[in-house]
Amino acid sequence: MAEPLLQVRGVRAGYGDVPVLWGIDLDVQRGEIACLVGSNGAGKTTLMRTLSGLVRASAGSIVFDGRELAAAEPEQVLAAGLAQVPEGRRLFSAMSIRDNLLMGAYLRRDGAIAADLARMFALFPILAERQNQAAGTLSGGEQQMCAIARGLMSAPRMLLIDELSLGLAPAVVDQLCDALRALNHDGLTLLVVEQDVAIALELARHAFAMDTGRIVRAGESATLANDPAIREAYLGAAQGPAF
Asked: Nearest Cα to 160, choosing from 67, 72, 61, 80?
């Protein structure tokens, strides 16, 4: 098997004297969609923030495309090609949609920014229609589209998305999942945090289940969907086959 694009080994992290992650191991293969599932408080967001350099790992290794990033600053992580769409979107609410997207490209010095902006507007046409509108006036689904597009404007090789569907209508979630599949088809690698486990396992090829700061299950999504522990915890013991 080829070397993983992202390889995490023994990562521990937390906030001050409060540990949250207890030795995380995971691999994300180049060109796949992987998902991270678990209940509130499992450590999913802390892991995403640690991968992004926003939380410093106290131990372990984070290797992205052969480069060690465990001690890297967020700007260095982004420059290496690893971008995050944060939980809660965190848009610049008073700025226009267009300016929010351009902020995603602030580290870039190449000549393809205008072309990528057009590509984002093609991916999410509603953003093109409202590009001069303040981002804070968008609906929740439109804000998530804007946040994803802003992350993509950094031209990443891998995109981390924290809580893809939180608070969104099912039709909007379907639209977002279709967009992620299209991006993945074009070669983008994705790691998605998703509380709705059924959505996550349908979207992703591989899945990781977290509990109390540890990876407790990992494997192909179809396998995890039929794992009795996963079904009981997240899918309902009486539910029929997920695939």
From this structure: 80
Which tokens in the block code for residue 214?
């540890």
86-141 pLDDT, tens per residue?
887 789 889 999 999 999 998 888 989 999 999 999 999 999 999 999 999 999 99
Kindly give the pairing relationship between strand 158-162 and strand 82-85: parallel
Contact between 59 and 11 (Cβ < 8 Å): yes
- CB distance 130 to 97 below 8 Å: yes
First to last CA, the chain: 26
* pTM given for the model: 0.90
Instruction: Give start and end residues of each alpha helix (H) in the chain.
Output: 44-51, 74-80, 97-103, 113-123, 125-129, 140-152, 170-185, 197-203, 221-225, 228-230
Under a CB-based contact definition with an 8 Å cutoff, are residues 152 and 182 in contact?
no
Which token pair is 95?
């700025």
CA 178 → CA 50, 202, 215, distances in Å?
A: 27, 12, 27
Displacement of CA 123 from its chain's centroid (Å): 18
Contact 60, 23 (CB under 8 A): yes
In the numeric block, which tokens belong to residue 237? 């013991």
Distance CA 78, CA 50 (A): 13
CATH architecture of 6-81+156-235: 3-Layer(aba) Sandwich (3.40)
- CA max distance for the chain: 54
Residue 178 CB contacts under 8 Å (≥ 6 apart), including other chains: none
Domain boundary assignment for the chain: 6-81+156-235, 91-154
